Amino acid sequence: EQKDIKEHKSHELRYLSELLENIGIPETESIDDDTFAVRRAMLEYYKNNDDAHLKVNVALAFGSVEASERSPLIASVVAFCLFSAGALTSVIPFVVIHDRYDAMVASFVCTILAIW
């Protein structure tokens, strides 16, 4: 994204203009309108400040703000739990069913149903 902002400034500013409309700062033709001044000032600021332009694009397009709190510990615990839960569909049939062939078929069916 940062590379695009540097190399394709006008395209990225048009994209930012669309994002501003999405958050309620519409494009207007009237110079007397307050919205015109606000919008023009914002676009001029982001035109001259690539770092701020990148941050506002990420925040508006992806709904992500870099300063938001994230915990690597919570992310790892959630990933472990989801991985374990996903693996259960293929492991439980082997614990419950004693015939390997039947367990393999049941595991396949359970996994397909869980994915679907």
Helical proportion, percent range: over 70%
Largest sheet: none
The helix/strand order is HHHHHH
- Which structural class should the secondary elements be placed in? mainly alpha
Radius of gyration: 25 Å
| pLDDT averaged over residues | 84
The proportion of residues in beta strands is under 5%
Shape: rod-shaped
Helical element count?
6
Spatial gap, N to C terminus: 34 Å
Which parts are unreliable, with pLDDT below 50 for 5 consecutive residues or more?
none
Number of DSSP E strands:
0
Structure commentary:
The protein has helices at 2-7, 9-22, 34-48, 50-62, 72-96, 100-115. It has 116 residues and is mostly helical. Helix 2 packs antiparallel against helix 3 (34-48), helix 3 (34-48) crosses helix 4 (50-62) and helix 5 (72-96) crosses helix 6 (100-115). The radius of gyration is 25 Å and the shape is rod-shaped.
Describe the secondary structure blueprint for this structure:
Layout: H1 2-7, H2 9-22, H3 34-48, H4 50-62, H5 72-96, H6 100-115
Helix pairs in contact: 2-3, 3-4, 5-6
Question: Can you give me a brief rundown of this structure?
Answer:
This protein is mainly alpha-helical and 116 residues long. The protein contains six helices and no strands.
Structural descriptors:
about 75% helix, 6 helices, single chain, about 120 residues, mainly alpha
